[in-house]
Amino acid sequence: MPTNYPQYGIYLIPSPSIWYQIAVAHHVFSSEFKAHTAGRFMVHCTVKGFFKLKENTSITELIAALNDLFSRTKAIPTQLEQLIPLNRPIFSPSFFIKLKNTPEFQKLHEEVWDIVRPYIAPDCLFSPVEPVGSMFIPHITLGMQDLPEEPGLFHQFQALAECAYETFSKEPFNASAIQLIEFYSNDWAAENWGKTLDFKLLQGWNLE
Questions:
Q1: Per-block mean pLDDT, blocks of 10 residues, the chain (208 long)
Q2: Would 77 be classed as within a structural domain?
Q3: CA-to-CA distance for 132 and 151, rounded, in angstroms?
Q4: Does the chain have fewer CB atoms within 10 Å around its N or its C terminus?
Q5: Is residue 18 part of a domain?
Q6: Exposed e or buried b for every residue in 182-191, given b needs 16+ CB within 10 A?
Q7: What range defines the domain where residue 55 resides?
């Protein structure tokens, strides 16, 4: 069965200043450690992660439903809370920035899921394992999949990531930009699907 079909995602974009700072950090990690995967995404916080579209549904129908939701949704208050490194055997090394999960953020997450759920294909690889509802942890990815696993190099990457994180604003902000993205990979079932990741920006919304 082919595993190179499009996937879709719905993302909340941070304030422009944080957006820019993290995009710069992604470029630095890519040049210094060949850590390319996180930078193959736009800077984002996942509201609804990768999903395969169900047969006999259309992305146009989904966009119409999202238009209605976002037309009555206000900008989401949040802020950066914590840099979280993961270098455990069951995970490839990763670095995430945890965001404050405000009631407005949680509500957005649940409302988007309610809209998207009927459009998800039964054989979707990602939706069944995505943290949803009370398990939702808003975060922005600094690095994933291709970080150095050798302890000495991982320690060096961590030092650089911590240095970058210290420069990011920790002040509360209102996130108002949302994007719908179409993603492509040569093989979504492969552990390293990120190495061939590409995307197309389908639509953006700006919350009041």
A1: 85 97 97 94 97 96 97 98 77 88 98 98 96 96 90 93 96 98 94 91 97
A2: yes
A3: 32
A4: N
A5: yes
A6: bbebeebeee
A7: 7-206
Rg of the chain over all Cα atoms, to the nearest angstrom: 17
CATH number of the domain encompassing residue 162: 3.90.1140.10
Residue 69 to residue 45: CA distance in whole angstroms: 18
Length reported for the chain: 208
Question: For residue 66, what are its two tokens?
Answer: 């999202």
Q: From CA 5, how far away is CA 183, in angstroms rounded?
A: 9
Closest to 111 measured CA to CA, from 86, 85, 74, 142 = 74
* Burial (CB count within 10 angstroms: exposed 0-12, middle 13-18, buried 19+), residue 63: middle
Do 136 and 102 meet the contact criterion of CB atoms below 8 Å apart? no
Chain centroid to Cα 29, Å, comes to 17
Cα 92 from Cα 146, distance rounded (Å): 8
Q: Is 133 exposed, middle or buried (0-12, 13-18, 19+ CB in 10 A)?
A: exposed
Within-domain flag for 2: no
